[in-house]
């Protein structure tokens, strides 16, 4: 009874099909302008300029550092007058910023902005 | 007791900072970090090998404490985040 009624009603109802250009046909998660696939492993790979800016911000915000001296090539201990403990602290701060886990051996080698930028930029998981 | 090498000390420092990050509670996390940095700075000028070795073994036992406590505290994580943890 109910199903007969239902099909009788549905048979009379006309839902107009609206096509407002191709916009509707494109799924929401595909952003054509950047042509980036959301599930691809390379979609959030960082731009080099972004990496440089964020690393420089970290180094500049370090209490003992004079922000005006910070450049992308600066050496932490030779140019900024930091010691090895400060160096470790900066590398730890970079780890936190980019959500990385840098192994001790690699972390020991990072002693300048240039090396830090290089490392983070080439790290596939940096975000 | 042999005096620890520079890399061993740096590695202990890094391990302590890493274990500090494990605490779910903002206050304890920051305290552990601050305490680590302050005490390494405090002992920076030590030159006597035996006192360096004593400070190093003290640091190592503190590391054990920090690791153990991080596990215990993670079982009783605060239900409400500290205001300092909330990103704007």
From TrEMBL, chain A:
Q: What is its main location?
A: mitochondrion
Tell me the pathway: Lipid metabolism; fatty acid biosynthesis
Lineage, opening ranks: Eukaryota, Viridiplantae, Streptophyta, Embryophyta, Tracheophyta
Record-level GO cellular component terms: mitochondrion
- Family note: Belongs to the acyl carrier protein (ACP) family.
Read off the PROSITE patterns from this record. CARRIER
Query: Assembly and partners?
Result: Complex I is composed of at least 49 different subunits.
Keywords on record = Electron transport, Fatty acid biosynthesis, Fatty acid metabolism, Lipid biosynthesis, Lipid metabolism, Mitochondrion, Phosphopantetheine, Phosphoprotein, Respiratory chain, Transit peptide, Transport
Q: Does the keyword DNA repair apply?
A: no
Boundaries of every Carrier domain copy: 49-124
What is the protein name for this chain? Answer: Acyl carrier protein
Q: Which organism is it from?
A: Tagetes erecta
What GO molecular functions are on record for this protein?
acyl binding; acyl carrier activity
Task: Provide the protein's localization.
Answer: Mitochondrion
Q: Does the keyword Transit peptide apply?
A: yes
Q: Pfam families from the xrefs?
A: PP-binding
Coiled coil region boundaries: none
What task does this protein carry out? Carrier of the growing fatty acid chain in fatty acid biosynthesis. May be involved in the synthesis of short and medium chain fatty acids. Accessory and non-catalytic subunit of the mitochondrial membrane respiratory chain NADH dehydrogenase (Complex I), which functions in the transfer of electrons from NADH to the respiratory chain.
Automatic annotation (TrEMBL), chain B:
Pfam families named among the record's database cross-references: Complex1_LYR
Question: In what residue span(s) does the Complex 1 LYR protein domain sit?
Answer: 8-65
> InterPro entries, from UniProt?
Complex1_LYR_dom (IPR008011), Complex1_LYR_LYRM4 (IPR045297)
What CDD domains does UniProt report for this protein, alphabetically? Complex1_LYR_LYRM4
One GO BP on record is: iron-sulfur cluster assembly
The protein's name? Complex 1 LYR protein domain-containing protein
Task: Record the organism.
Answer: Tagetes erecta
């Amino acid at each position: 009874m109910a199903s007969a009624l239902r099909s009788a009603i549905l048979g009379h109802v006309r839902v107009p099909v609206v096509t407002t250009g191709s916009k509707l046909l494109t799924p929401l998660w595909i952003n054509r302008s950047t042509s980036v696939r959301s599930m691809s492993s390379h979609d959030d790979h960082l731009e080099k300029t972004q990496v440089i800016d964020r690393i420089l911000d970290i180094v500049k915000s370090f209490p003992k550092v004079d922000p005006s001296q910070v450049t992308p090539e600066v050496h932490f201990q030779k140019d900024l007058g930091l010691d090895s403990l400060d160096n470790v602290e900066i590398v730890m701060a970079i780890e936190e910023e980019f959500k990385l886990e840098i192994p001790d051996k690699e972390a020991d080698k990072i002693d300048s902005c240039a090396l830090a930028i290089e490392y983070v930029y080439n790290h596939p998981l940096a975000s | 007791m042999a005096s620890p090498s520079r890399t061993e000390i740096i590695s202990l420092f890094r391990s302590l900072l890493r274990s500090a990050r494990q605490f779910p509670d903002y206050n304890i996390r920051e305290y552990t970090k601050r305490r680590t940095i302050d005490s390494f700075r405090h002992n920076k000028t030590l030159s006597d090998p035996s006192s360096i070795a004593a400070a190093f073994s003290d640091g190592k036992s503190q590391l054990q404490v920090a690791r153990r406590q991080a596990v215990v505290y993670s079982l009783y994580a605060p239900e409400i985040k500290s205001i300092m943890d909330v990103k704007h």
